[in-house]
């Protein structure tokens, strides 16, 4: 086993989040989890601390930051994000708290159709976003604002963005790798595995890459 670390996971009761915390616990790490629905987290482990709370209220989670080695955010609220950039507001609250406590490593999971600052989506992906994935536009705008903020105002932190092409639950379809231009439709467990490996990868710091199955 690798050296025991402490993970703080936001969105832990989501489908990717649940796979992520299960993996971190299996690897022998400690996990602090914030969840709107703690009842969805059925794991029982002495290494797991679960707290009910919301990202829009720092009083629910700020004291979980000190001592964390890695912070992971796997957040999504499609209906709320149609009108409010809740993830951007959260990250703007989180980053100063991380600085105050000397926590530097942060992985944010975005959607694969969210545009990286300074780059364009391919015509195919843009067409897909504007048609089939149109109902997720609010989430894409929120994710893009998070990426701009991290790029422009958080260069002192070791952040990374996973632009995930999440499809559905199910068994693993293989190993995802970091890619600047290829996106695979992946299972929740494979996206969790990728994010687990990536948050500990110094080579991924300050990147906004997608993930693609190994060829």
Automatic annotation (TrEMBL):
Matching InterPro entries: NAD(P)-bd_dom, NAD(P)-bd_dom_sf, Polyketide_Oxido-like
Q: Name one Pfam family in it.
A: NAD_binding_10
Ranges annotated as spanning the membrane: none
GO molecular function terms here?
biliverdin reductase [NAD(P)H] activity; riboflavin reductase (NADPH) activity
Q: Where is the NAD(P)-binding domain?
A: 11-174
Entry-linked PANTHER family: FLAVIN REDUCTASE (NADPH)
The name of this protein is NAD(P)H-binding
Q: Which organism is it from?
A: Actinoplanes philippinensis
Give the source lineage, highest ranks first. Bacteria, Bacillati, Actinomycetota, Actinomycetes, Micromonosporales
């Amino acid at each position: 086993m690798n050296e025991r670390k402490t993970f703080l996971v936001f969105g832990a009761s989501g489908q990717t989040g649940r796979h992520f915390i299960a993996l971190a616990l299996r690897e022998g790490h400690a996990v602090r989890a914030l969840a709107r629905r703690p009842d969805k987290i059925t794991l029982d482990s002495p290494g797991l601390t679960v707290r009910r709370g919301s990202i829009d209220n720092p009083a629910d989670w700020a004291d979980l930051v000190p001592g964390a080695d890695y912070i992971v955010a796997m957040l999504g609220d499609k209906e709320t994000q149609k009108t409010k950039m809740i993830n951007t507001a959260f990250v703007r609250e989180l980053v100063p708290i991380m600085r105050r406590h000397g926590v530097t490593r942060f992985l944010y999971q975005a959607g694969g159709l969210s545009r990286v600052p300074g780059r364009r989506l391919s015509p195919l992906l843009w067409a897909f976003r504007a048609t089939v994935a149109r109902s997720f536009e609010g989430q894409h705008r929120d994710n893009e604002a998070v990426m701009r903020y991290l790029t422009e105002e958080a260069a002192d932190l070791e952040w990374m963005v996973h632009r995930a092409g999440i499809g559905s639950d199910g068994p693993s379809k293989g190993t995802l790798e970091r890619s600047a231009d290829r996106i695979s439709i992946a299972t929740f467990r494979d996206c969790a595995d990728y994010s687990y490996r990536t948050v500990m990868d110094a080579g991924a710091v300050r990147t906004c890459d997608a993930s693609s199955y190994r060829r």
